[in-house]
Structures are given as C-alpha cells and as structure tokens.
Amino acid sequence: TLLGVITTDAMVASDVWRKMVQIAVNRSFNQITVDGDTSTNDTVIALASGLSGLTRIVSINSYEAMQLQECLDVVMQGLAKSIAWDGEGATCLIEVSVTGADSETEAAKIARSVASSSLAAVYGRDPNWGRIACAAGYAGIPFHQNKLQVLLGDILLMEAGEPQPFDRAAASNYLRKAGETHGTVEIHISVGDGLGSGQAWGCDLSYDYVKINAEYTT
Amino acid sequence: VSMTGNESSNYIPKAPIFLPEGPWKQIPGGVTAAEGFKAAGMYGGLRAKGEKPDLALVTCDVDAISAGAFTMNVVAAAPVLYCKKALDVAKTARAVLINAGQANAATGDAGYQDVIECASALAELLQMRPEEVLIESTGVIGHRIKKEALLNSLPKLVASLSSSIEGADSAAVAITTTDLVSKSLAIESQVGGRTVRVGGMAKGSGMIHPNMA
C-alpha cells in the first residue's frame, strides 16, 4: 500500500488545486510499480494552507500555476522514487524514460509497462534488451518498431528496432554496480519522433520479495 | 514507555531522495516545512508486532484547501470511502490521521463506523468539524483498526504535535509498514514572486502498483 500526505503554503483555488494534484499523481505515484498489485488503500491527501502570502492561483493555465505544478511534481516524484527504491527485496531502483511518443500519456504508459514487466533479468544482471522491447511493445501504444531505440544507462542496446553489438560485460557490470550500491538502473527508450515523453519507476524482483510475501498473511 | 520525538523520527533510516535539478531548493522538514502545518508520530499499540511508531497526525492551523487521489480498486478500504465523501462535501480540511498495522479494508459497515468514530473523536479534541479530519490506514486487509488503542492515544498524539523537522520525521516513520526506510522531503521555490514551500511524506514497499484518481 501507498499512502502519502502533501502540504504546501501556496494559496490556490480548490478546483485548480485538485486538478494539479491529480496531474502530479499521474506523473509520480501512478507511475511506480513494485509487484503489480494495486492496493485497497492507496491514498494521497494534499493540503494547501495559503499562508505563504502568495496571491491566490485561480487559473491552472497561469504562470504561477505552472511554477507550483513543477514543485508539486518534483516532490511527489521524489517520494514515489523512494518507494520504488524501497520495494520489498529490491536491490536497485529502475528508472524508465520514454521519449518520441505522440503524447506524455502514451510515453508514460510505455514507460510503466516496461517498469512493470517482471524484469527479473535486472536482478540477474542480464542486459535483456529483448524483454525491454517486448514490454514496450505490449504497452498498448502503437509505434513503428523500426524506430525503437533502447539504451541501458549510456550503452546502446537497440537501434532502429534491431539489436546492436554492445559490450556485454560493461552492460552487466552496470547492472551489478547498481545492485551492489542500491543505486539506479536507467533504461532510455525512444519510440519515434513525437514530442511526448514520460517516466516510470520500478525495482528489480529478487528472491527476497518472494520470501517476504510468502510469509506475509492477511 | 513513551518514546521521545527524536527516537521516533530515527526509528528507521531515511530514504535517499533523488531530486532532478530545477528552480527549487531541498529543505528539511517534510510535511511541516510549509507554513501552518504540524505533525506527530507515536507508538499507539496498533501494530501486531514491535513498538515502531504506528500512529501519525498532520494538522493545519487554518482551513487548508484539500485534494485527494484514491485507489480505483473497487475493494476499497473504509478510510478511502470516508475520505472520498469528506472531499465531496468540503473543499477544505485541517487534519490527516494515519494508522499503520490494520488496513481497515474488507471490514464492512463496522470498519466504516470505526473511521467515523476516530474522525469524530479527533475533531472534538482539535475543535474541528469531523469532515475536516481525513483518515488513511495501512496494514493487514480484513483487520479492523485497534480502535480503543487509537482513541486512547489521541490526546498524547495531539499534545506532541509540532511544526519541527522531528515532528515531520516521526510522522513519516509512523506511517510505515514493511518499509525499510521512511520517505519524506520538502522543497522551497519562488512562485509568483513569493517563497512557497511544498513538502510531503509517503510510505510503500509492497503491494505497489497504484492506479489513483
């Protein structure tokens, strides 16, 4: 279960605040996954006291609203990443960044599909580009597969929809190092020339996850 | 034995926070960084095992504009149903009470009544309207809140409210379940020429695939 409480002293009209919070949730908490189980209790409450003295934001299209949205996004993304980083049994955070989609929503959906797939290969330190491409492909978002590019960190694994020669040891070390330091595995995917981009976060699936949840009981 | 705020806030390590570069500065404080907010976390005897803090409260000195995002799982817990109703009837809220240990999901009408009773008891203590109190619960599905323990803890919880960093940190610990680290952060930025602070805390480690609206 995910719970969150967000606070700000910005002064913002109720309808604007509620839209902003949903936008930020869609760019953060709704983009993380550990095990594919959507809880009965997931909740984020966000409160705005207005005590900063800021003039009340009454339009979501105002410059001030954009500034506050950016702050809200970054706080919720920071918290969301720390949840994925702390996934049960996780040894590393997986950050999937998708560009080139037709919209932010489509890019986010592809990113979350990849982050959600049981990328056990990350735990096995295996640069499994095939699984990454497959998960991007079943996200439900059409794209030209000949435009698919996949990088692991800065190591190019796929270009124009086909695997590229790459230093396997370097790629595997990249994954191993992330696991040893509980760091981040970055997967960069481009699916075309669109302007849509999005991110999602997950973690690797380890034996510990199975052990923790085998013993957990309702 | 009551734990000091300092002990509560350091019961488990803090998560590393990964923030991108941007027109903001990370500041300490979590949910108490923004003006007008207080928080507290304590052990109320709600957990099945251990004495990690398990009851948290965040309050606002004024009527705060409220918003919420909730699981779209149709097997929704009682606090989720309650909060949705509260946000429907009121645009503002002043308190969020969070318990860890029982999810209060699949607990039927009795579970829902537990939420109303806890919200009302806290509202009375804080001299607010019940619908200004929002509730979050996490823990084992099918278990009702340990209501007596929770209600008995409220006076002490309210008494330990503070706008300090420790208050925020201890609340962030108290909301955790299988988390190995607590999650809390705050930033300060310029909005419309004024200094604005945004902060927050979260928990989550397993059963994570949110789909909130």
What does this structure look like?
The complex is a heterodimer of chains A (218) and B (213). With 218 residues, chain A is an alpha/beta fold. Helix content of chain A is 39%, strand content 22%. In chain A, helix 1 (14-26) runs parallel beside helix 2 (63-85) and helix 3 packs across helix 5 (129-137). Chain B is of the alpha+beta class and 213 residues long. Chain B has a 4-stranded mixed beta sheet. A 3-stranded antiparallel beta sheet of chain B has the order 1-6-7, covered by helices on one side. The radius of gyration of chain B is 16 Å and the shape is globular. Chain B has 5 helices and 7 strands; from the N terminus they run H-E-E-E-H-E-H-E-H-H-E-E. The N and C termini of chain B lie far apart (41 Å).
Main attributes of the structure:
heterodimer; A: 218 residues; alpha/beta; 6-stranded mixed beta sheet; two-stranded parallel ribbon; 7 helices; 8 strands; 39% helix; B: 213 residues; alpha+beta; 4-stranded mixed beta sheet; 3-stranded antiparallel beta sheet; 5 helices; 7 strands; 30% strand; globular
